[in-house]
Design goal:
Elements (H helix, E strand, L loop, with lengths): L9 E6 L2 E7 L19 H49 L11 E7 L4 E5 L14 E9 L5 E4 L3
Antiparallel strand pairs: 1-2, 3-4, 3-5, 5-6
């Protein structure tokens, strides 16, 4: 046998009719002699399954976190849309008084005149009861950004 690199542990070997040049038993990942160190095969399929399951678990956690954020944003978008609807309804309503920020007013549908009005007095603010021609739609409050929001004072 010739030793191409003339290394202490390097040599050419013959396997069958094939010459394998520069064979070094110190750098092979498997034993090269009958008395070599025992080794086990790497359980690649098991390792792949573990990696896949861990990857799926982390991806699912991230997906669920993002979907929670999406639901929060969706709820906020619906609230803003409702605020715009209430603002449009108030601006379309008739009223004959000065409105002030932070005050609560009531959107009322007046059945006799078939129109929406903005009223200062709510359904429980009348000493003799609310007019029968009034159908209260919502209690509204004027915000500092010049939009109106529905409140729970109805």
């Amino acid at each position: 046998m010739s030793n191409v690199l003339k290394g202490k542990d390097s040599f050419d070997i013959t396997t069958g009719n094939t010459i394998v040049p520069f064979f070094n038993r110190n750098v092979t990942p498997y034993p090269t002699e009958a008395g070599g160190v025992k080794f086990d095969l790497v359980p690649v399929e098991k390792q792949k399954d573990i990696m896949l399951n861990v990857g799926r678990m982390h991806a699912e956690q991230e997906y669920n976190r993002i979907m929670e954020l999406v639901s929060v944003l969706e709820r906020q978008a619906q609230q803003i849309k409702r605020r715009l609807e209430i603002t449009d309804a108030v601006h379309a309503a008739e009223y004959q008084f000065q409105t002030y920020h932070g005050q609560t007013y009531w959107l009322v549908f007046e059945k006799e005149k078939q129109k929406t009005i903005l009223a200062k007095t709510g359904p429980n603010g009348w000493s003799s009861g609310a007019p029968e021609s009034y159908e209260y739609i919502a209690a509204v409050k004027w915000l500092g950004d010049h939009t109106w929001i529905e409140t729970d004072n109805a």
